[in-house]
Write the structure tokens for this entry.
Amino acid sequence: MNWHQIDIWIVGIYILLMLGTGFWHRRFANKSMDNFFLGGRKIPGWLNGISYTAALVSPDAATGYGGLAVATGGFICWWYLSRFGLALFLGGVLFAVFWRRLNLFTTLEFYDLRFPKGAAAAMRLWIAIRTSMVAMPAWTGITLLAACKIMGPAFNLSKLETLYLVVPVSLLFVFSSGYKGVVISNFIQMIIFLIGTLMLAWLTLRHFGGAEAMVTAIHTKFGPSGAEILGSIPPKDHAVFPLAAALGWLLGQSIGYGGDAAPMGGAMEGQRILSTRTPAEALTMYVVTAISMFLLLLLVTLPSISAAVMWPELREAGADRELVYGRLMKTLLPAGAMGLMVAAMLAATMSTVGDNLNFGSQVLVSDIYRRWFVPKAKESHYMLMGKLGMIIILALSVAVVFNVLIITDVAIFMLSLSAAELPANWAQWWWWRFNGPARVTASFGGAGIFCLVVLGPRLLALLNVPWANSLVIPWYWQTLLVMGLTTVLWVAVALLTKPDPDELLREFYVRAHPLGCWTPYKTLDKQGPAGSFKLVFRGIFIAILGTVSVSLLMLGLTHAWFARYIEGILTVAAAVITFLIFWKLAEKYLAVLALRAADNAVPTAVKEEEPVMNNMN
């Protein structure tokens, strides 16, 4: 496909719009660290939700999820529903209010509040390095790689040409705009991305002559296996995504979610929470993220499923399926539409790159540079170091682009590694006996167990050990096994070592008002709702309702795509009713948590809620 003048104009206008947005917010961003990295803590919850979606739904969604979709079928929605659905609602209902109430600068400061100095320092340094130097470069790198995989087949651009198009604009934008500019631009970028994906979805249906004709083409092309492609539930046996994988993904990514707001799978999540205007709006952020992200992923995956008719060879083992969305763009887009889709891909890429660079540099400066090397300097100095940190993270990300081939391999590796310590993240909020040694064991011991279970068999295979392949199990069972073994390890360490100092736990309880098992400190509560496990179970039930509602919505739209209109309408109606029930119960739940916090208000001497960063030096 050749570039037309209108395409060049569309891309040029988009780039100028983003740069203009960045420079517009430059003065506000440069006033303070809070402004540059947290938008002055005045970002609406819904806008932060759209922004978080922008960070999660980048071109790697179009390539990674598109590739999975062409190899699976209508049930691909369970890949991201099991990965994100329950996890996001658990994080929003059970933890968002508590994180926002702590009023931290970065969520890593939590460890200084919760654990003794030695364990807190080790954890804060480890997670800061893991986040800024591993997670952010990895996720940014696969985002850039995804952009290359789309721009390559669609517009005949090489990796270097794609990077020349994306990287300078992204870096210049995030340098000048700060977090507020990033969030506002994310909103604009997601509108462009939505328009682009809607257009390609419509063109895909038009290519086949409508939904009914598309379904007929799938049956004709694939025969008996066509029914599996059109199915909405993962089959029991499937080479790529069986039912067991969906269940393993659901448990492995949901249990423990929310207790750490800087997970390797979505490390910038804490930044979204801490920058919201109120604790209640932190829940809104999660809900908007779930709905908007799943809708955009559906718009990317449904056309990719249909594309299997056009390129059936992509369903064969060993095929680079992640090229499918780029091929669709090249085949179906008319003049003018190409410029819009380039702008859409640039929008998705720039939003993720900007988010990752802003958040990664925030952690790098606050939790490593300021915490360990230069504790007392002017804010202008730290902002300069933050911009230098962006360049370092970006350089590492470019290295990922040229050393990784399959995007989903990186994603599965990162998420499986982070799953090892997820249950411990709940324990640090809900169990007073979870101490510093247990926290360190969960993080470092979990990484060790991951290497033993996941990487050990691969090493033995490289050494030509005959029985090495018998130790290799599917990635979803690996995730659950690593999680289970790590949990047994840290529980044993917690019970065999002394509790953390009473004064430390007392101060944390008074400031955070955590739920769960804090029996020795219940006497600190005044009259009001008790923070027992009853509230935890109530919150889990509400989170499940929210998950069911968005899952029904995705299934209903999938039914409609495959011309099952009656099932689609009924399922969407059930989704709306379930969501209304969820929202009503969630409002009441937040009211109970707010009442409990008010009844147990922190005394004036402790109530000063300045960010921990400002009190440490």
